Amino acid sequence: MDVLPAEGLLAASWLLIALPLAGAAVLLLGGRRTDRWGHLLGTATVVAAFVLALLCTFQLAGLDEPSVGVDLFTFISAGDLDVEMGLLYDPLSAVFVLLITGVGSLIHIYSIGYMAHDPARRRFFAYLNLFVAAMLLLVLGNSFVALYVGWEGVGLASYLLIAFWYTRPAAATAAKKAFIMNRVGDVGLALAIFLMFAQLGTTSFEGVFGTVGTLAGGTITAMGLLLLLGACGKSGQFPLQAWLPDAMEGPTPVSALIHAATMVTAGVYLIARSAPIYDLTETARTVVMAIGALTLLIGAIAGCAYDDIKKVLAYSTVSQIGYMFLAVGLGPAGYVAGLAHLLAHGFFKAGLFLGAGSVMHAMNDQVDMRRYGGLWKKLPVTFVTFGLGYLALIGFPFLAGYFTKDAIIEATFDRDDWLGWTFGGIAVLAAGLTAFYMTRLMLMTFFGRARWEDGVHPHESPAVMTVPMVVLAVGSVFSGALLVSIFPLSDWMEPVFGEPEEAAHVIAPATIGIALTAIMLLGVLAAWLFVGRREVPVTAPVRVSPITRAARHGLYADAVNESLFMRPGQWLTRALVWVDNRGVDGAVNGLAATLGGSSSRLGRAQTGFVRTYALGMLGGAVLVAGALLAVTAG
Amino acid sequence: MTLTYYLVLAAILFTIGAVGVLVRRNAIVVFMCVELMLNSVNLTLVTFARATGTIDGQIMAFFVMVVAAAEVVVGLAIIMSIYRTRRSASVDDANLLKY
């Protein structure tokens, strides 16, 4: 696929990044002076970027070769390393740009209401704008280095926003945890880029994908696995999934935008973008699939046990991104399915988070679902929009999740080998679990007896918050059908991933659809039996099965990380401190002490008696004379 | 008449001077012993000048005398001021410059 130079509006696509970046700069540098209108500026830049993105995408759709490049400037030029900063606007980046700016605009609008009473609202909007700019650079960059700059930028914005309420120790710790676990992944991505430069001498998408075929199989696999490590860190996939649930300490709009709809899907983007690399390495693809399947199961199991509404949604995100990884790991058969699920997930999960934020807003920031109940009467708009997002997520027929999740599971079974059957089976099982934990969440939040704390008077959120929720709910209902049937994503993506091949279906799609619906209904029924039918206790029961206990601790991911990495790390640092104090400092201090001591002892020879010195001189002269005589005589 | 006697005499004078410097405490005596050593060296220089038939040694002896005269001036002045501050001319009493 050739990249053509951009013309017309597309040549100005750098404005997409520049607008929110300028917004962030004005808000951060302007200080208190911008407090009064800061949120309006922050929202305006993102909405403007969305309008520009729409126009750019329309222009792109009209081109014969829908892949254009914008050369900006030379970023790095040192010896053999030559990195040109530029943008690549193709169907893949176009859908991401639309998702980021579209959902981003809605969440900015929602935040105006949600953060209305926060004294630091301007700072919040500055960070959100910074995030949007970095995320757009991530998906628009035309080289792995540009992608990496955006990748680190979103990491920074995520850190700043998780720790937005930095006076809370839990938020500060969660932000640090997210930052450090992301660094682990980023090392993988950086090493992959180093490998590209060392082996291919270039880091641009065009250059790398054009020449990657000349490398040895092992090198390509290593590259694929390193990229996967980076993707796992950013997307909260096994074994780096533990930071994502903790990241919920940030304000809820952040959870919706960064930790559900956009940033955490960057890993999926990375793998889809690197399709030419993964197409050449079956091993790396299998690992991607395995990680996706494992993570979607872990997320679904952990999601069943938590009582914190945002943590349940976070584990649900982990699980859904697992589906996307499973899909993109399938290779050409799954890229489009994975991306369709990503887009649909962007709608319904952002909507669910905004709904959760609305509930928290009504309940004085209570997140424990055991203190909710019976809210459907008090929060009708939230209930309906949240309910539609819920139905879309569990795959209720003809809503978004039904189409996109079905497509992934179909494609998995279509492999028709033991891997396909195993991973497909896991995906189907997790679909049942998804229905279970989401129904549990719905029942505990909106139905049953009110278990509110004293002094809580729930009220519906203002229109500035409910309108974005309604828009996202409409997206949750229709996006799946739109992306799969009416306006197929596979046709739009054809220039990137090639002609969609007609797969030979192992199981008829209708059968899978019916089976998934049946399993979904089973999950809902189970949730009704376990949660809906009985009274929900206000405090979590203590005497529970080991599985529940494990799930409540996120399957001990934190414990494993602490005992495998944190403790040995602490021991290592303690040992190093000891060696430094006793070994290095000891040698240096000891040398200094020895020299000082011996010089003061030598100083005792200076008695101050003239005659002693005279004897010394005489003795010396005799010695010299004797030596001279001996030499002459000898 | 050989020159050996002169050299032996010079050695004896030098030894007396050196022993005097080492064993005597009175600064004036030490000072005179130093002069004795200088003059024994002068004697040696002159002796060898005679032996080799050149005048280098004699010239050198004059230099030594000039330097010794200058040294006497400075040295006696130092001894005087030490005596004025300490009421003693013992070299062992002037031992402050030490470790």
TrEMBL record, chain B:
Catalytic activity entry: a quinone + NADH + 5 H(+)(in) = a quinol + NAD(+) + 4 H(+)(out)
TM region(s), chain numbering: 6-23, 28-49, 61-83
Pfam families: Oxidored_q2
GO cellular component terms attached to this protein's record: NADH dehydrogenase complex; plasma membrane
Coiled coil: none
Topological relation to the membrane, as annotated: Multi-pass membrane protein
Chief localisation class: membrane
Alphabetical GO biological process terms: ATP synthesis coupled electron transport
Compartments where located: Cell membrane; Membrane
Molecular-function GO terms, alphabetical: NADH dehydrogenase (quinone) (non-electrogenic) activity; quinone binding
InterPro entries according to UniProt: NADH_UbQ_OxRdtase_chain4L/K (IPR001133), NUOK/Mnh_C1-like (IPR039428)
Record keywords: Cell membrane, Membrane, NAD, Quinone, Translocase, Transmembrane, Transmembrane helix, Transport
Function summary: NDH-1 shuttles electrons from NADH, via FMN and iron-sulfur (Fe-S) centers, to quinones in the respiratory chain. The immediate electron acceptor for the enzyme in this species is believed to be a menaquinone. Couples the redox reaction to proton translocation (for every two electrons transferred, four hydrogen ions are translocated across the cytoplasmic membrane), and thus conserves the redox energy in a proton gradient.
Family affiliation: Belongs to the complex I subunit 4L family.
Quaternary structure note: NDH-1 is composed of 14 different subunits. Subunits NuoA, H, J, K, L, M, N constitute the membrane sector of the complex.
Protein name (database record): NADH-quinone oxidoreductase subunit K
